[in-house]
Every structure is written in C-alpha cells, then in structure tokens.
Design goal:
Helix content is about 50%, strand content about 5%. The chain is mainly α.
Amino acid sequence: MKISTKGRYALRMIYDLALHNEDGFVSLKDIADRQNISKKYLEQIVPLLNRSGILKTNRGNRGGYMLAHSPSECTVGDILRATEGSLAPVSCLEFEPNECPRVAECSTLYIWEGLYKAVNDYLDSITIQDIIEKNTAGGDYCI
C-alpha cells in the first residue's frame, strides 16, 4: 500500500484547518499558501472530503472550509479512506463480504486480513488532535 499525494495533501489540508479552527471558514487560497500546495490540486480533494462528511463548506464573501467535527473526532484513517478509497492490501478485501472465488481455500488470506486490520486500527487510532499535540510538544510529525 502506498499513500498517494492526494491522501498526503488531504491530511495536510485537514491539519491546517484544525490549526485554524477558531478562525471560522478558511479559504482554499490561504490553506494552499500556508501548506505550499497548489490550490487547483486542493480543489480536486475538497469534493472527496466534503462527500465523506469531513468538511463543512460555505460559499460567498466569507466562504471557505472548516472541519465538520472537532479535530479529536477526525482520524487519519477517515481522511485516507475518503481520498484513497479502500486501504485494503489486496483487492479481495475491498468489499464485504469477500466474494473471491478462492476465499474458502486461500491459504494466505489470514495474512492480508491481519495486515488490513493492523493498518486500519493504527490509522484510526490517530486523530488530527493527536498530530497537533505531537507538533506543539516539539515532536517531529511530517505529513
């Protein structure tokens, strides 16, 4: 599994919004400038995050974006699944139930299920608030 630029930039965007949560709606231009990410690229990410219920949007003069939930309720797993789709290491785990014709006789399925569970459990255990606290405590969290 390799996380794409879309997933990494989405995480940076959400982190930036969390840092500026008290400012109300934040413009995409401001996020792009602070995070050194193309505004056009962020425009491609916004619909994915919006559709997943991670963002709130507001149009008009005071328009922009803000988190739909507090940073402590938004996990890295939520963001990556919204932008990357499934985090499954093999295609047969992308859907429930597993409809692979070899599921009953697959001798390696338990390996992929374990990896999938470990990845999801880990990413779901880290909130945006955790990243903020790690960074303000002098930790080195590179997104």
